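Q: For a teaching session next week I want to show students how multiple molecules come together into a single three-dimensional assembly. I've collected the sequence lines for a complex. Could you give me the predicted structure tokens for the whole thing so I can convert them for display?
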Amino acid sequence: MLEVGTAPDEPCLRADAARNRARLLEAAARLIAEHGVAGVTMEAVATAAQVGKGTVFRRFGDRTGLLMALLDHSARRLQADFVGGPPPLGPGAPPLERLRAFGVAVLYRSAEQLDLHLAAQAEPARRFAHPAVEALRVHVTMLLRQIVPDGDCDLLAQTLMASLDPALIHHLTRQCGMPMERLEAGWTDLVARVTRTGP
Amino acid sequence: MLEVGTAPDEPCLRADAARNRARLLEAAARLIAEHGVAGVTMEAVATAAQVGKGTVFRRFGDRTGLLMALLDHSARRLQADFVGGPPPLGPGAPPLERLRAFGVAVLYRSAEQLDLHLAAQAEPARRFAHPAVEALRVHVTMLLRQIVPDGDCDLLAQTLMASLDPALIHHLTRQCGMPMERLEAGWTDLVARVTRTGP
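A: Of course. Below is the structure for the complete assembly, covering every listed component.
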């Protein structure tokens, strides 16, 4: 993933581009908060960010590209939190505590952006190979290896991640009416069972 | 779900319709075995079953309808096995053994019909509410209630079912190159952890 603004050539132009991109993404996030994913059109984002429509198209290609970029933006923030943020999500806490905190963070992040996650979900054959999904799974695998070194941590990580699938969260909260507190307790319970640790 | 041939009116016509439907589904299943899901067109099924193309359209509406009907057909066979078939899948074995056997049966059934499952998978917002998926989940919940009566069996059943998602099986076997034996061992291990029973 390109980090804009760090290359030695044309630092001002690149910093400008990064700021523009961030402004467009913030405008899109505001539109979603106010009108849901359906409210995000290229025109609406251009108007909200006070730029021309062409700028939005040049930056993201199309609406799907914009939705993916929005998720990528929030995925990187989450990733920064669990890679280098404060414990218990970040380093410093025992791996079991980090794993518990990770699931809760993912649950609430998905719940906040549920429509966006559903709209941007890849088709079945590519769903599990998506880079954003892989980054989370790799983190869970790393933590599991420290907690249950003799387990098949690759498979266990897949199961833990599958229980955090946005489509499942959508089903449980909106179709079955479960409160988020129950999903949070369910995650903590699942982690305890899978790692064979105390409740 | 309608059971054809059991209604008192026009028993012969209904039995005929059921036989025709079964013949078309068998022809479609043969085509998949020989040429993959891509080989299933309405024309090819009509030719293979020696009927007119119109008959196939009248019966299934379109290609997606035919694919769904094919899955429904095999789902009912699996359902008959775990509801009334011989143990350990059917009644008679302890619930823990039935749960182990259930996952293995679902795993191999999905692996056999992977392309069909992927082609017929519903969009994210409807994936978990699909009747075929619900029937399996209800069975898992029922077994879990007998094994871990104080657990949140609704949520645990969702997690167990998520680990049997055809899209995940596709990813693990075709994209990561894992053998089915490892997935089978992973299921047995997962059931032991989730139910806190011996390995």
